[in-house]
Design brief:
By secondary structure, the chain is an alpha/beta fold. The protein contains 10 helices and 13 strands. Strands 3, 4, 5, 6, 7, 8, 9, 10, 11, 12 and 13 form an 11-stranded mixed β-sheet that branches.
Length: about 300
């Protein structure tokens, strides 16, 4: 099967219809329609449906499966091209990362900033999304390495490579009406008992359990899907924000961070890949760098990952 046909199929799916795809990739509509029929004949399955009165396509089960596999196949072709260029010209190309919404800022500031100094010819594609979307991005080959805020299930198809322990922190506006003893670095859960709290939805349950162990129910002002929005509540001094942080992680200057000393919760972020899927040489260089700079506890054998990559 011609990869160009698979790439055009991806464009049709992502554009919503043949007409829009034709305009986007500058290929005549009859040609795209013919290619779609060729794919259906090749796989002996109906791939798309069209609603009556609408030009929008709907993927069949077979169409969804082909779309996911086509994304992965084309990503392998892209990765091969990047690796060939990298081997010819040193470390170069595009590193594709699937990153939890709350992790992009520290990733750029603490990791990619230094990595770029060591490998100035490398550029990045960073896909920010929720855990469910991240898993799909990794399986489809859209992202090669993932940085998760939600630990992967031990029985899942995602393999944990590195882990960074985190702690719950209470974040105050520097002029907050709820801020007592600004110079103290720590705080106890009971000191948050009657204060409106903003927390990310991904960590609400862990925080609620910590509060229950301390004998109270938190006064929740807002539960948010992203850490940025969660922190906005502290910046506006409308609540105290509770977020997980790793050692040495900084926030904006107008915020004061206090570690919650008695919050007994196992929280951490993970660097992951798809189990059994070899990594590109560029991704392996990134993992070597990540390991050498001591950003996290290593759970993988990097030499084994190199051996695995040779089987591609």
């Amino acid at each position: 099967m011609d990869l160009a046909v698979l790439r055009n199929f991806i464009s049709i799916v992502e554009s919503g219809n043949v007409t829009s795809a034709s305009e986007k990739i500058h290929i005549a509509q009859p040609t795209l329609s013919k290619q779609l029929r060729q794919l259906e004949n090749y796989y002996d399955a109906k791939l798309v449906l069209t609603e009556r009165g609408s030009r929008q396509i709907i993927l069949t089960d077979a169409g969804r499966l082909l779309y996911e596999k086509a994304k992965y196949i084309c990503s392998l072709d892209d990765a091969a091209l990047e690796e060939i260029r990298s081997s010819e010209h040193g470390a170069s190309g595009t590193l594709r990362l699937s990153v939890a919404n709350s992790r992009s800022k520290p990733l750029v500031e603490r990791v990619l900033n230094e990595f770029s100094k060591a490998y100035p010819d490398v550029n990045f594609m960073i896909f920010e999304s929720s855990f469910i979307e991240q898993r799909q991005q990794l399986l489809n080959g859209i992202g090669e390495i993932g940085l998760l805020s939600t630990p992967p299930d031990k029985n899942s198809d995602i393999e944990e490579l590195f882990r960074t322990d985190e702690y719950f922190a209470a974040v105050f506006n520097s002029h907050s009406k709820w801020l007592e003893e600004p110079s103290r670095k720590g705080i106890l859960l009971n000191q948050l008992k009657d204060i409106p709290i903003s927390v990310s939805s991904g960590y609400y349950e862990e925080f609620r359990q910590c509060c229950a162990q301390a004998g109270f129910t938190p006064r929740l002002r807002s539960i948010n899907t992203t850490r940025n929005t969660t922190l906005h509540w502290a910046s506006a001094d409308m609540a105290v924000t509770v977020v997980p942080l790793s050692e040495g992680e900084d926030l904006e200057e107008n915020l004061i961070v206090k570690k919650i000393l008695d919050a007994d919760a196992e929280i951490y972020k993970s660097v992951v890949k798809v189990k059994g899927r070899p990594l590109s040489l560029l991704a392996l260089k990134f993992l070597e760098f990540y390991n050498e700079y001591g950003y996290a506890k290593r759970l993988c054998n990097i030499q084994s990952l190199y051996e695995e990559s040779k089987k591609r």
